[in-house]
Request: fold
Amino acid sequence: MSLLTIGTLAFDSIHTPFGKKERVLGGSCTYVSYAASYFTDKINLVSIVGGDFPEEELDNLRNIGVNLNGLEIKRDGKTFFWEGKYHLNMISRDTLVTDLNVLDDFNPVLPESFKTSEFVMLGNLTPSLQEQVLDQLTNPDVFIALDTMNFWMDIAMEKLLEVIRRVDVLVINDEEARQLSGEFALTRAADKILTMGPKFLIIKKGEHGSLLFYESKIFFAPGLPLAEVKDPTGAGDTFAGGFMGYLSKTGDTSFENMKRAIIYGSAMASFCVQEFSLEGIKNLSREAIDKRVKKFSEIVDFNLV
Amino acid sequence: MSLLTIGTLAFDSIHTPFGKKERVLGGSCTYVSYAASYFTDKINLVSIVGGDFPEEELDNLRNIGVNLNGLEIKRDGKTFFWEGKYHLNMISRDTLVTDLNVLDDFNPVLPESFKTSEFVMLGNLTPSLQEQVLDQLTNPDVFIALDTMNFWMDIAMEKLLEVIRRVDVLVINDEEARQLSGEFALTRAADKILTMGPKFLIIKKGEHGSLLFYESKIFFAPGLPLAEVKDPTGAGDTFAGGFMGYLSKTGDTSFENMKRAIIYGSAMASFCVQEFSLEGIKNLSREAIDKRVKKFSEIVDFNLV
Reply:
């Protein structure tokens, strides 16, 4: 089934304690697309870039099965740019530069064929842009995942709540779940958030794994301890891409299959952080992915007898 | 098989965002003993208290199977006292008062019958006191778990390393593992620490669960998301008590059984933090423990196919 990804294509400059990369490929749609491409080749992308975006990278996206009919190219504009510096813990970071550039004019208009997509990964954008996308979807059985961040809770909570009401799964991190709910304990936060509209809630805890909440059930996907983390940029989007890609492939949104999808998402994210930019999730073999997924299974395996 | 616990009996005054308790029962031996008592009634305790320690609490310990022949009671002294205040996250805390009192004179001398204990939980004390205990053990097949803290790494690293060399499993938290190894990534930290002597390493990550390292294998025990955490004091000792209690009961230190022991330890710790002081782990039913352990199994359960 087809997966619609809406968000950014970007250039990132990334400083970590272990190195620096200038103007490498980034953006939520990029990470989502590469991660999802291992599960589906029906990826519909809606984003905006400037004339400086390399034709070669567009070809690369086409080659992994991404339909770019929803990509606006502003020849006289510049692509969204972000520069950030990670702290020694490789979790917290300082944003050094955010140049919205063409993103400032982003007006997501879905091509007709995209409106019936079965799965939608609605990336972190202003809640009103997210709403504009939701208004264009026509498939009554569409399954929508939403990403957002603290910033929108601070300045546009009301609109954000309207958007959250209309999605199937909210994918946020622990601090965002706490802010959104006003509850510190994640189970209480989840209880509250599940009354706001979404049927499922995923709380990402970075290296500590993630939690899936559904009705009164909880699933805990472990974080895989890694010897080397080079660049955490895009890990959340890669997780979402693997997760939604797996759901698109299987077309099954039962709790049991959501668990598997989260493990696949976690596996993709674990590849992502091991290299800079998209390097960790380009050109992976099926075998490498299956092997990584198996590690997630082995690491939590125990028998009570 | 018998479990020797060496450490503190204490009074704690605990401030949390949700309440305050004055001079309640605490100390590592206390938490270890109560947690282990659900698995074994052969607990040998070595500690020191003052004349102010209630006879009733000693009776309570005797009633759960604790042999107090190794407890020194200094009639004219006062019991170790700790006062601390937890931050809103219920993880970090400030120590307000540490009155060593009789602990300053602690000279752990093992009764003859204790020296052959099969399992030893060596609590967080000065490395030279820990060494003194090790020197008294006579069972060639003894299995020793060691707790320690950053403080000893700062002021007595050399002696601490001598002690670490002689134990079977080191039980520390993530920050301690990083400081001890000089490595940030926990897998690298574990690789280094496993060359320092211990066959097994357990890294506790609080609410995020714990990791067991053995040779090149890793086991990840999840943290159980709890709706309410009232008092984290003693959670680490309770974990250790459940863990070592389960090992003492089964007498099996294979990797597979260590995993089960960690799950039992985690379950006991999850009860501990739900109430102040020892209240959460007193008077638990077998059924309640089994049910809690099953939750740890369910929360990470998924099938790949």
Notes: The first helix of chain A runs from residue 28 to 36. Chain A has a mean pLDDT of 97.
